[in-house]
Write a structure and sequence with these properties.
Length: 315
C-alpha cells in the first residue's frame, strides 16, 4: 500500500552551544519515529509537553532537517535538502498561534496568494479565483481577504490559517495544536469545520495535541509519544478505552472521568527524563510502575500486538 507519507526511524537532534568552557550538548528530540498516514484518515499524536509531537510535524514538513532516518512522500523517498519543494503540493501545515503565523503587514488576500505565486500554472486571475474559493471553503468571504490579521478575531485568523493550507489542495494537513489558543466555543467551530472539509475533500490530517479527549474525538488512529519516541499506536478508540502501554494508561488516568470504560493506570509520578540524557533502556522506565530488569537496560522495539503497535517489554 502506498501511504501519503511514511517515516522510518526518524531521528532529530538539536545541538546546544555549551558556551565558554562548556561542551556542546545534544537534545534528542526524536528517537526513531516510524509512522505512516493513509488517505482520508486523521492520525492524532498525543503526549506531554516536550515529548516531540511538534518536532515530528516540523521535521515531516521540512521545517526541521532530520538528523537521520527516512521520509517517504507518496511512496518516494525524498531528498532532505529538497524537501520543501517535494512536500508543498502533498502536505501543508496549520500552526498553533493563528496570529503569529500571519504576516501583520500584508492583507489576507496577499498572504493566501503567496503559495500560488510559486506555481507558474496560476495566472493572476486564477490566483484570485482560488483565494476566493479557499475563503469560502472555511466560511469566510472576499471581504475578509481585504483585511489585516489584527482586524480579525482569533477564530477567523485560524480559519485563514486553514485556508492558506488548503490553497495548494494538499492530500494531508499537519495541524499543530490548532485550537489550544482559542476559546472553547471557537474550538468547537474549528473542529466542525475540519470534519466538514475532510468529508467534502477527503483530506488527511495529522492532528497534534496534548488534549487527549479532543484527539480521541477527531482521530481515526492515535500515536502516543514520550520523550521523542512512539509508545503505542492504534485506533483512537482502542488506545483511549483499552490502553496497554503504562504511559498510555497514565494519560487516560488523567482524564478518566471523560472515558468511563477506560482501565485507569497508575498516576504519572515524577518528571520526564531530560532529552539531553535519555534513559538507556525504555524511555519511560524512570516513571513506570511496572519497570524491572531489562526495562532499564534495553530499549523495547515498537512491535505489533493484536490490532496495534506497542513499545513495552511487558506486552
Amino acid at each position: 500500500m502506498r501511504y501519503i507519507w511514511e517515516t522510518e526511524n526518524l531521528v532529530k537532534e538539536f545541538t546546544l552551544s555549551g558556551g565558554l568552557f562548556k561542551p556542546k550538548q545534544i537534545v534528542h528530540a526524536l528517537q526513531g519515529v516510524s509512522l505512516f498516514q493513509e488517505e482520508g484518515e486523521t492520525l492524532g499524536i498525543v503526549g506531554e509537553s516536550g515529548c516531540g509531537k511538534s518536532t515530528f510535524g516540523y521535521t515531516l514538513m521540512g521545517l526541521h532537517q532530520a538528523t537521520s532516518g527516512s521520509i517517504y512522500i507518496d511512496g518516494y523517498k525524498i531528498d532532505p535538502y529538497k524537501k520543501r519543494k517535494a512536500v508543498q503540493n502533498v502536505m501543508q501545515m496549520v500552526f498553533q498561534n493563528p496570529y503569529a503565523s500571519l504576516n501583520p503587514r500584508l492583507k489576507i488576500h496577499t498572504i493566501l496568494e503567496e503559495p500560488l505565486e510559486l506555481d507558474s500554472q496560476y495566472t493572476p486571475r486564477d490566483r484570485s479565483i482560488r483565494v476566493k474559493e479557499a475563503l469560502e471553503q472555511v466560511g469566510l468571504t472576499v471581504a475578509h481577504g481585504e483585511r489585516y490579521a489584527h482586524e480579525l478575531s482569533g477564530g477567523q485568523r485560524q480559519r485563514i490559517g486553514i485556508a492558506r493550507a488548503l490553497i495548494m489542495q494538499p492530500k494531508s494537513i499537519i495541524l499543530d495544536e490548532p485550537i489550544s489558543a482559542l476559546d472553547v466555543s471557537i474550538q468547537v467551530q474549528i473542529m466542525t469545520l475540519l470534519e466538514k472539509l475532510q468529508a467534502l475533500y477527503g483530506i488527511s490530517y495529522l492532528f497534534i495535541s496534548h488534549d487527549l479527549p479532543m484527539v480521541r474525538y477527531i482521530s481515526h488512529r492515535m500515536a502516543v509519544m514520550y520523550l521523542g519516541a512512539v509508545m503505542e499506536v492504534g485506533s483512537a478508540r482502542d488506545v483511549c478505552e483499552n490502553p496497554q502501554h503504562p504511559y498510555s494508561k497514565a494519560l487516560v488516568n488523567m482524564i478518566g472521568q471523560l472515558l468511563p470504560r477506560a482501565p485507569l493506570g497508575e498516576p504519572l509520578r515524577g518528571e520526564p527524563s531530560s532529552p539531553l540524557h535519555p534513559p538507556k533502556g525504555c524511555l519511560f522506565s524512570a516513571r513506570c510502575p511496572e519497570a524491572e530488569g531489562r526495562c532499564f537496560d534495553q530499549r523495547p522495539p515498537l512491535k505489533p500486538w493484536m490490532d496495534r503497535y506497542i513499545a513495552c517489554w511487558h506486552i
